[in-house]
Every structure is written in structure tokens, then in C-alpha cells.
Write a structure and sequence with these properties.
Elements (H helix, E strand, L loop, with lengths): L1 H74 L1
Length: 76
């Protein structure tokens, strides 16, 4: 009888260890996916920021060139 309970205990412990292991695998997997998505989103945000900055500088240059053009036409 005592031997049977030892065997049962062994199986319970084994099952707990297995479920913990699978749980840690799942969390690692989802953490990995989350990290990937986070990096992708960060990359997209950086790309948008650089695009906006480029557009901003471009329009500033156009504005500046227009002002210089007007200045040159009226002051010479």
C-alpha cells in the first residue's frame, strides 16, 4: 500500500514538473513573439519619424528657396 502511494506521488510530481515546463515554454514563446512585434512596431515608428522629418526639412527648404527667390526678384 505504501509503495503504491509512493508511485502515485512520483507521477503527481512528474505531471507537475511537465506542466511547469510546458508553461515556461509557452511563456518564452509568447515573450519572443511579443518582443518581435515590439521591435517591428518600434522600427515602423522610427521609419515614420524619419519620413516626417524628411518631409519637414524638404518643405522648409522649398519655403526658404521661395523666400530667397522673392527677395532676389524684389531687391535687385
Amino acid at each position: 500500500m505504501e509503495n503504491k502511494s509512493k508511485i502515485n506521488n512520483y507521477f503527481v510530481i512528474q505531471n507537475e514538473a511537465r506542466s511547469e515546463e510546458s508553461q515556461s515554454k509557452k511563456t518564452k514563446f509568447f515573450r519572443h513573439i511579443y518582443q518581435k512585434n515590439f521591435n517591428i512596431n518600434k522600427y515602423i515608428k522610427e521609419k515614420k519619424a524619419t519620413k516626417n522629418l524628411a518631409a519637414f526639412v524638404f518643405f522648409k527648404l522649398i519655403k526658404l528657396s521661395n523666400q530667397l527667390f522673392i527677395f532676389n526678384t524684389f531687391w535687385h
